[in-house]
Every structure is written in structure tokens, then in C-alpha cells.
Specification:
heterodimer, A: about 110 residues, mainly beta, 6-stranded mixed beta sheet, 11 strands, about 55% strand, globular, B: about 110 residues, 7-stranded mixed beta sheet
């Protein structure tokens, strides 16, 4: 089955700096790559996703890039703010396939 | 519109006891899921149900059973709880876009 690895496990940045979180996946057939944000004590929520027919997707301060050849994808957050502090999870699956595999998560801390 | 709801929010069991975690969604989603979340291990899929009347194993199904009671409800049962099942359990449901909507979670401790 699919295996997703996520790095780093913790990341601390100064407010206003950029943050990058990287994930690799093992199954070349995977074609759907979402990112979820989980604030402390809350439920995970989708922040952005990308399908393998595009290489990059952007939504305001958040962007995701995908390299299918290398089987890795990354989350980029620019101009970080304290409210960006949370745990971020990447995931991979076949689109419309129910068996989604998640990375272990990255705890991002944005210092004011 | 409550989204995805779970009961209970917290539960403490003794080893060997059984219990059922309840999940319901009011978004008319076809697919529903049960995950467990452990520190440093992300979310791991236990079981899922692609549609009413069907269920399939995920990554970590051992020690669990599920029932898709109707389109709205998907329950997770622990027949004989073990300390290794201490975790936070999330239910989720999906619409066709693949975005998973999660419930608030159930924090389970098995002593």
C-alpha cells in the first residue's frame, strides 16, 4: 500500500518568514494530495489539495507543489502569522479512492 | 447543519470491556471513515464505508468492527478493548471532491 513520509516533524519560524513542509509518497499511481491543518484540540481541516495533472496550486499565502517524477510534494506558507501555528498533515491517495494515507504530521510554531 | 458529529467525546475503559463509538453526518455524503490518531503517527485509517451497505478494511483494522447503519451513521465497535487502543478516534465523511470532513474526535483511554 501507499506510504507517506513527512518532514520535518517540528518547525519553528519567526512571524513573517516562510515555512516549507515536504512529503514523499511511494505509490506512483497516487494522484490526489491534500493538506490538512489541525489546531490544538480541534479536528483536521482541509486547507489545500492538488491533483497530479497540475504541478502547482496557490491559495493566497498557501501553495502546494508536486513533483510526480520524484514522488514528492510540498506545502509552502508565506508571510506566516501566529494563527498559522498548528499541526499540518499531508496525505496521498487515488482520486475518489477511499484509502487515504497520511503523513505523521509537522508541528509548526510561528513566533510573534 | 451540524456536519459530522461523534459520541462520546471522552471514554475510559478497562481492558477487556467493549464499547461502540457513534458517528453521524448530515451532509448526504456517501463515504464515511474511521481513523485513529496517535502521537507521532498521524491519522491511520481503520475502516471505511464507500456507500450504505458496504464496509472495507483500512490500514489498521485489527481489534475493531464497524457498521454502516444507514447513509448518515457509521459506528465503530471495540469488542475487547486493549491498552494499545488508547487513542483519539476521528470519524470523517467525503463528498465527491475527496475533501474529508472530520468529526470532533473521541478521546479513548484503555486502562
Amino acid at each position: 500500500g501507499e506510504n507517506v513520509e513527512q518532514h520535518p516533524s517540528t518547525l519553528s519560524v519567526q512571524e513573517g518568514d516562510s515555512a516549507v513542509i515536504k512529503c514523499t509518497y511511494s505509490d506512483s499511481a497516487s494522484n490526489y494530495f491534500p493538506w490538512y491543518k489541525q489546531e490544538l484540540g480541534k479536528r483536521p481541516q482541509l486547507i489545500i489539495d492538488i491533483r497530479s495533472n497540475v504541478g502547482e496550486k496557490k491559495d493566497q499565502r498557501i501553495a502546494v507543489t508536486l513533483n510526480k517524477t520524484a514522488k514528492h510534494f510540498s506545502l509552502h506558507i508565506t508571510e506566516t502569522q501566529p494563527e498559522d501555528s498548528a499541526v499540518y498533515f499531508c496525505a496521498a491517495s487515488l482520486y475518489n479512492n477511499n484509502d487515504m494515507r497520511f503523513g505523521a504530521g509537522t508541528r509548526l510554531t510561528v513566533k510573534p | 447543519n451540524a456536519g459530522v458529529t461523534q459520541t462520546p467525546k471522552f471514554q475510559v475503559l478497562k481492558t477487556g470491556q467493549s464499547m461502540t463509538l457513534q458517528c453521524a453526518q448530515d451532509m448526504n455524503h456517501n463515504s464515511m471513515y474511521w481513523y485513529r490518531q496517535d502521537p507521532g503517527m498521524g491519522l491511520r485509517l481503520i475502516y471505511y464505508s464507500a456507500s450504505e451497505g458496504t464496509t472495507d478494511k483500512g490500514e489498521v483494522p485489527n481489534g475493531y468492527n464497524v457498521s454502516r447503519l444507514n447513509k448518515r451513521e457509521f459506528s465503530l465497535r471495540l469488542e475487547s478493548a486493549a491498552p494499545s487502543q488508547t487513542s483519539v478516534y476521528f470519524c470523517a465523511s467525503t463528498r465527491v471532491r475527496n475533501e474529508q470532513f472530520f468529526g470532533p474526535g473521541t478521546r479513548l483511554t484503555v486502562l
